[in-house]
Amino acid sequence: MVKEGMKKTISVAIVCGLGMGLPLAGQVHLEGDHSPDFALPDRTTGETFTLHERENRIIVLDFFAYWCAPCAFSSPDLEENVKGHYEEAGGNPQGLAVEVVSMNLEEEDPGLTDEFVEQVGMDLVIDDVNFEAFSLYNDTGGIPLFVIINGYRNAEGLEQWEILLNQAGYPGSAAIRKIIDAIELEPEAAEVLFADLPDEGEGWRESPWFGWIHPGQAPFFFHLEHGWTFVAPESTETDLYYFDTGIGWLYTSEELYPNIYSFVEESWLRYSIGSERWFWHDARTEWIQYPLN
Q: What's the longest Cα–Cα distance across the chain?
């Protein structure tokens, strides 16, 4: 329970920049650290809020108390210019979800806390009246305290649950948004076609319809008879759009092969399997060996 004298000390501590107020935690997790999990009650619903269940979002923790003078400015600004901004924008510039979580530290005078929450317009308020979460990040004893945590598994250059900001005193919505806007996901690895086929030795795989293939480096693969090919992203293991350096862009499928459509020739080609790249050219009605001399 926060005593009246402690309230004053905390409030003065943050205004004056002093490391006084609430007892400091034994182990504080700072920027760059992995945030531990915590589970605390939602003030409105009573349901348990668990940090590590908030995956796939960027989480902003706002530790406040109704009597904290700086909180009377920082919390409304955070709600309007961080929470409201990202709700309107549909996430950060990369479309990543942002969640602002208001962390109430005051147990006494619940009516005054409710009044503060209503005035500010807080939606998600978690009670941390025993300082369970606060003690994980508090190294100054002062509030307001702001913590930004990455909840994405595949954020580029970041670990999941990594602390990106831990600051007593409001840095301002612009500083918070700058951190959030810089977060983006790692590019998805290109699918390696035919990689699920059994490796018959040194990476070679045999497609039941397309023959011997070495996956190579996606999106390129090497075909024993056709040579190096570049596979278009929309291709599947049964439906191929690919670029042959000797012919150009081609299309074939499990149902069509060895019939292959050439977009450059605007004609169907029928490959003579096992030959040295001989194709029957439907439009010319003749056999052609590619690449042309």
A: 97
How far from the centroid of its chain's Cα atoms is residue 163's Cα?
Answer: 15
The DSSP call for residue 23 is P
Please give the model's pTM, rounded to 2 decimal places: 0.63
For 4-181, CATH gives 3.40.30.10
Domain ranges of the chain: 4-181, 205-289
Q: Please answer whether residues 263 and 249 qualify as being in contact, where contact means their C-beta atoms are separated by less than 8 angstroms.
A: yes
Residue 77 Ramachandran class (φ > 0 left, ψ -120 to 50 alpha, else beta): alpha
Q: What is the pLDDT of residues 183-233, one digit of tens each?
A: 999 887 556 778 788 999 888 999 999 999 987 777 888 999 999 999 988
**Residue closest to 103 by CA, chosen among 145, 46, 139:** 145
Calculate the CA 89 to chain-centre distance. 17
Say if residues 254 and 239 touch (Cβ distance below 8 Å). Answer: yes
Coil, strand, or helix at residue 270?
strand
